[in-house]
Structures are given as structure tokens and as C-alpha cells.
Write a structure and sequence with these properties.
The protein is an alpha/beta fold and about 290 residues long. It folds into 2 domains: about 5-130 and about 200-285, Alpha/Beta hydrolase fold, catalytic domain (Rossmann fold, 3-Layer(aba) Sandwich); about 130-190, no CATH class. About 45% of the residues lie in helices and about 15% in strands. The chain contains 11 helices and 10 strands. The strands form 2 sheets. An 8-stranded mixed sheet has the order 1-2-4-3-5-6-9-10, with helices on both faces. It has a two-stranded antiparallel ribbon with strand order 7-8. Strand 5 (about 90-95), helix 3 and strand 6 (about 115-120) form a beta-alpha-beta unit. Helix 2 crosses helix 3 (about 100-110). It is globular, with a radius of gyration of 18 Å. The chain starts with a strand and ends with a helix.
Length: about 290
């Protein structure tokens, strides 16, 4: 398993194929081995891409990290650092849900590594954002208050990163629990649906500065976590964006969540369907 050292963090990654560089980021705290992620990379590689799949800090086999104004900004900076270390920029930066947020922030904050950006399942709306803040940070805050870092390390949400990377338990336990709680509270506030941030961390001015070609897949009407209005507003805000329909139906997110809960499908299982529209768009806008 290859790793790269980026700003003192060991980042796990794989590169599939040869050609135009792409980097794919899944959502949540899911890693690069989540079903659908590598399959999208394989489909892009079959179309002439060198597709990077990676574990963001706090996911998979990469190191945990509790720096930065928000978790997404920290991960966006790590994405840019990884592309520089691998000498793969400028790349097409693509992702969904949390990966969309990280991709957009990476392209806006580090334009030197971005040839273009593609995003789908863009989190937004009061319900979606407040739910995310609680989901990502609430359990860790409560555990830190009540039991210190040993209780945080025992949470199921931090189990995978400890199983995949033996250094991460020590990194978790080494945190001062008061500083860790302050970090989680700061990261939670990043999801506040207020002010001029359509996407957490991406205020209107920063979004308008993102002058790279952007492909935004419209969210379905049934998706209350990644609202259609958010995808439409984002596409209108970015200076060189194209808003397109995704290759799945309006109830795709809801149906995929239900399938995952039944144990007969993965949340990202449909992602390989994105390869053809992604490759066609990149060929058109980048040559």
C-alpha cells in the first residue's frame, strides 16, 4: 500500500491507469476501498485517466489529523499536498457529498493543482448541514467531555482508522481532550447554515474565484441531505460551471440508503455510471 508524506501526515493512496490525472474523493468518512469508489477509478482509467483514490486524513489507512478551521478544509489542503507530492497536478478533482465539499475547497484554495472540478451530492440546506455537524462531531464531543480521549478512541466512528493504521490510536490518545473538544466544536460550527457560505468553507467570494471548469450534477428532489436547490445555486455561483442531470433517477439517494440499510447495496455503488459523462465533459473542456 503506497503512502505519501504530506505536511507530516502519512496519506494512503493508489493510482489506477495512465493518462490525464484525476483524484476521486468519497463522502462521509468512507475510505478508498468503499464499493463504488475504486470501480469509478477503474472506469475512468479505461477511458484514459490516471485516477488517484485516496484516504483522507481521518479515513481509512491515513493518519488522523485535528488541525484546521474545519475538517473539510484540512482534507482539501491534504488533497492539494498529495497531488503536489505525486507531481500529478493540475488534475481533475472530483467527489460526492463530503468529497464534493473537499474537492471544491481544494480547487478554490489551491488552483495550481486543479485543471477542473466535478461535484455531486452537494450537502446543503438547514437540515442537511445541521445533521452533518452533529454526525461528524457530536459523538466525539460528548465522549471527550465524559471520558476523555480514551472514550473518544473507543467510539465506533474511530474504529476503522485505528484498525487500518496502528499509529492512529496513539495519535488519538495523545490529544489533550480540552483542545480536542474545542476543535470538534469549531468543526461543528463550520456546518452552520448561515452567512454567505453555500457550501461549508466555500463563501461566495471564494466560489466566484474558482475559475476552473466545473461540472455540477443536479441533486434529486427527494434528497433532503443534498438539496436540489444547493446544487443549482452552486452551479449559478461558479463562474465556469455546467449543471447537468445525473445518470440516475430522482430517488437514487433514498433508494441507495435503503439498500445499504438492508445490506444489499453500497452507498457509492452507482458511481461507475458517472465515468462516461465525466470523461466526455473533461475531453470537451480540457481537450
Amino acid at each position: 500500500m503506497p503512502t505519501a508524506s504530506v505536511d507530516g501526515l502519512e496519506i494512503a493512496y493508489d493510482i489506477v491507469g495512465e493518462g490525464r490525472p484525476w483524484i476521486i474523493t468519497p463522502g462521509g468518512r468512507y475510505d478508498r476501498e468503499t464499493p463504488g469508489v475504486r470501480e469509478l477509478a477503474d472506469a475512468l482509467a479505461a477511458g484514459g485517466a490516471a485516477a488517484v483514490v485516496w484516504d483522507r486524513p481521518n479515513t481509512g489507512a491515513s493518519d488522523v489529523c485535528f488541525a484546521g478551521a474545519s475538517e473539510s478544509e484540512m482534507q482539501a489542503d491534504a488533497l492539494a499536498g498529495l497531488l503536489r507530492r505525486l507531481d500529478l497536478g493540475p488534475a481533475v478533482i472530483a467527489g460526492g457529498s463530503g468529497g464534493a465539499r473537499v474537492s471544491l475547497l481544494a480547487a478554490a484554495r489551491h488552483p495550481d493543482v486543479a485543471a477542473a472540478v466535478a461535484a455531486w451530492w452537494i450537502s446543503g440546506g438547514p437540515y442537511g448541514l445541521l445533521t452533518l455537524g452533529t454526525h461528524y462531531c457530536g459523538g466525539s464531543i460528548k465522549a471527550g467531555w465524559n471520558g476523555g480521549m480514551a472514550a473518544v478512541a473507543a467510539l465506533p466512528e474511530w474504529a476503522a482508522v485505528q484498525d487500518r493504521n496502528s499509529r492512529n490510536r496513539d495519535r488519538l490518545l495523545a490529544q489533550d481532550h480540552r483542545e480536542f473538544i474545542a476543535t470538534m466544536e469549531r468543526w461543528m460550527l463550520a456546518y452552520c447554515p448561515c452567512g454567505d457560505q453555500l457550501v461549508p468553507g466555500l463563501d461566495d467570494d471564494l466560489a466566484r474565484s474558482l475559475d476552473r471548469p466545473a461540472l455540477v450534477f443536479r441533486s434529486g428532489e427527494s434528497d433532503m441531505n443534498h438539496t436540489r436547490a444547493t446544487s443549482e445555486a452552486l452551479a449559478a455561483l461558479l463562474p465556469d460551471a455546467r449543471l447537468v442531470e445525473p445518470p440516475w433517477g430522482d430517488r437514487e439517494w433514498v433508494e441507495r440508503q435503503a439498500a445499504r440499510n438492508r445490506g444489499d447495496g453500497g452507498l457509492f455503488s452507482g458511481w461507475p455510471q458517472l465515468a462516461d459523462p465525466l470523461l466526455s465533459w473533461a475531453a470537451e473542456v480540457l481537450g
